[in-house]
């Protein structure tokens, strides 16, 4: 059974994510050199590492400009879109399937009185 919030999230994914992913693919193919999924996977991990470094610095008490977090988060998203397109992963389908599996586990845990 899917709760209402998850049902709404899935509907939003169905209505929007494929279009966004396809637009990223069109833009990437039109304006940039074709690269392999290996390249984009490494790029994704590099960008996620840069975001993690900002979090680490903030955790250690340094004042980090919020715009830097926004910039790195955007880089992670772009790299993820490019990776999925290069690997021919339909992110919409992958997310919906994953969310349904998570919800099933969450509900099973809830029945046992446990948190997910």
List keywords for this structure.
116 residues, mainly alpha, 4 helices, 81% helix
Description:
The longest helix has 28 residues, at 4-31. It contains 4 helices and no strands. Helices cover 81% and strands 0% of the residues. It has helices spanning 4-31, 37-59, 66-87, 91-111. The chain is an all-alpha fold. The mean pLDDT is 94.
Shape: globular
Helices and strands, in order, run as: HHHH
Number of helices: 4
**What amount of the residues lies in strands?**
under 5%
The average pLDDT score comes to 94
Please summarize the sheet with the most strands: none
Question: Which residue ranges are poorly predicted, with pLDDT under 50 across at least 5 consecutive positions?
Answer: none
Based on CA atoms alone, the radius of gyration comes out at 18 Å
Number of separate strands: 0
Structural class: mainly alpha
Residue share in helices? over 70%
């Amino acid at each position: 059974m899917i709760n209402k919030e998850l049902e709404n999230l899935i509907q939003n994914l169905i209505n929007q994510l494929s279009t966004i992913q396809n637009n990223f693919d069109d833009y990437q193919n039109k304006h940039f050199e074709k690269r392999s999924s290996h390249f984009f996977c490494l790029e994704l991990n590099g960008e996620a590492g840069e975001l993690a470094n900002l979090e680490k610095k903030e955790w250690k008490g340094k004042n980090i400009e919020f715009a830097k977090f926004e910039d790195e988060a955007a880089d992670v998203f772009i790299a993820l879109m490019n990776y999925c397109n290069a690997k021919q992963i339909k992110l919409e389908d992958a997310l919906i399937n994953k969310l349904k599996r998570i919800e099933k586990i969450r509900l099973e845990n809830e029945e046992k009185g446990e948190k997910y």
